Each structure stands twice: as structure tokens, then as C-alpha cells.
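Self-study notes.
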Amino acid sequence: MEAWVRFSAQSQARERLLRAAQYACVLAGAALSRSGGSSGTLSRLQQLEAHLSLGRKLLRLGGSAEALGGAQRSLHLPDPVLRFCLTLSHLNRALFLACDNVLWAGKSGVLPGLAMEKWSQRSFKYYLFALVVNLSRDAYELRLLLERAGAARKRGRSAESRAQPRGQGRLQQLRLQLQLQLHLLLQVLRDNPPLLLDLLRNACDLVIPLERLGLCRSSPAVVGLCGLSSSLLSVVTILHPWLKLKP
């Protein structure tokens, strides 16, 4: 109960809940369209989705300043790769949120006559670049963990277990090596839930800007499922801060 009270007190948490509801509407609308649902129900779902999207934009007002603060903090990280990735990610997120604030002003009537499509495409470009950088950071973290786990496994082996049987063919050795690498990858991801959740969340989110920018065509059901999944993963990391990838 205490965790839920802390959760509901955060604007980011409320925004994630609205996001989950928004993409649940997208998913439900796609399911109704496929099953031949009534046009009235579909229209109400689309209106609800639009209202939820506008509410999310309202909650994200001022988020650019927070993202810029994150970029400033990441400049002091000792690891140069993490410093580069996190700083670039925060800067792109700040630009994305700035465009999102302009879109909110246009949709709410503060800026009438705003070129909505132009600003929407611009915001999704910044969002896409931030996600690509986030996935690059995840890949870097994963590579470091794989190298450490591989080195620990080699140190733990005996000389007998490292010896390869002479009768093995190259193809069989390659298959065995691939199996060992896959097992090591699964073990590293299982032992590092924050990295696994961050990787899944960014991968799910990547579908949304790719589809909106026309770089990868996908169905509304796929977009809704990916958006809902990433939103629920974000909610989990807010409820349980130890699952959030740091720094």
C-alpha cells in the first residue's frame, strides 16, 4: 500500500498509467476492428485515446528542464561510453519533450494554426534517436557483463574441462560454442533484471516512432501491444526502483 501511495504521488507514474490506458485503447480498437465491432464503439475508443494522449502531454509540461538536468549530471560519469550515450539520450529527450509541449499548445488551442504534422514528425525523430542511443547503451552494458561472466567462467574451469576432444569436427565445435554463448547470454540477463527490463522496454518503444515516421509499417495491434508492454514495464520500475537501470 505504501509503495502504491508513493507511486501515485509521482507525475511520471501518473503519465505512465495514462500511457498504458492509451495504448490499451489502441489495442482494443484494433481487436474490435478485426472482429467487426460497431463504429460507435470504435469512435469512442479513438476519442478516449486522444483525450489520454492530451492528458499525458499536460503531465509532461516542463519535462525538458528535467531531461537537461539529467544530461548535466551524466557529464560527470567516469565511463566515457556511458557518459556519451546518457548525455545524448537526455538531450534528445529534452528536444522531444519541447516539441511535445508545442504540440500540446497546438491541440489545446493556445497556438491555433500550428503545423501539427510537422511538429509531430519532428518530435518522433528526436524520440527515435533517443531510443537508439538507449539501446546502444543497453548493448554496451550487456557486452561488459558478458565479458565479465566469460572471464569468470574461464577462471572457474579446470584444465581438463577446457580441453577439446580431438574427434570433434569444426561444425560441432561451432555449434557447441554458440550454445555456450547463448547460455551465457540468458544467464547474464537472468542475473541482471534491470538491464533485461530496460532492454525490453526500449525495444518495445522503438516500434512506435518507426511506425509513425513510416520507416517500418506495422499494424495498430502491434503498436498497441508494444506501447502497453513498455508502459507496464515502466510502471514496474517505478514501483520497484531497484529494477531501474542505473546510472
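Second protein, same conventions, sequence then structure:
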Amino acid sequence: MVFGEMDGCDACNAVMEAQVICRHHAHEPRENQCSSVIVRHIKAPANLVWSLVRRFDQPQKYKPFVSRCVVQGDLKIGSVREVNVKTGLPATTSTERLELFDDDEHVLGIKILDGDHRLRNYSSVATVHPEIIDGRPGTLVIESFVVDVPEGNTKDDTCYFVRALINCNLNCLAEVSERMAASGQVEASNAV
């Protein structure tokens, strides 16, 4: 849809997306990095969606490639998690740190510290925002990232791969959230 063809609600949503992207998702990639922003509208209330996204200690609740996650120490900014990745991806482990967490603004940021994969200097930010979809409570989820382009790859190839992973995660988040909402659940858990 072209901006000039949007109705009032679509135009407001587009403005809100642009404002949020400028505020939380403005990465400044270096020459050897790529960056992108992915937007997903979910037909479930924002508090329910956030209750899943905020679980730094349980990404496997909606991320299909995560088989196990162990957090070292208390859950707070600076916490580190060890993630085991399911077979089928070019990785088996990832060590990640919680960089941003704002329960009021619904902001979660992570940085990959290490792992047997090619995602070096990877950082991502996910934000969750209430919106109305078809007259019902819905959610706008925005996730952005910046990552080094591995030697032998192009920026386009790297961005395509990471965007595909994030899109898969966000599609699963939508499926889980919408299923929970349809069954009357209002949130997954209150723990970080």
C-alpha cells in the first residue's frame, strides 16, 4: 500500500511505526555490517505478546530454533544466557547478553557474545506496542538488528538470512500469541 492510498488508521499506524523505529531501532551500521527492521502485526493484546517477548530466560516459548536456554545468575540487564539451537541451522550454541529491558515501554535488547555461528557483533532490539486490528486489541512488534557481514558473504545475503530467522520467530510469536488470546489467556508469565 502506498502512503498516499492509506486510510486514516493506516496512516496513523505508519506514523507510529516510523516514530518507534526512529526512537528504538536506529542502528548505525559500520561499513562491514548490515542492519534491518522487521515489522509484524499480531492479532492479540500487547500485554500477552509482551509476556512472551520479555522472557529472556525462555526464548523457546516462541522461537522455534531454540531447544534450550540457561541463564547465568539473576535476570537483569547484563544477564547472560546460553542458548542451544535445534539441528537444521548452521549453529548449535549461542551466548547472549540482555542489553535493554524496559517493562513499561516494552523494549528488549540482546547482544550475541559468542557461539558456533557466524553472527558476530549481532545486536537486536524488539519493541511491543498496542494497536487496534480489525476493531480489536492487537500488537505491533518491531525488531531490528545490526550484525557483521561474514567474510565471503554479501550484505544482501547476510540481511536476507537474519531477516528470514526473525520473520520465522515473529510468525511463531504471532501463532502462539493468537492461540493464547483465543483460549482466553491474558499473559504467559510475570517473571522476566
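Instructor comment on the second fold: DSSP finds three helices and seven strands in the chain.
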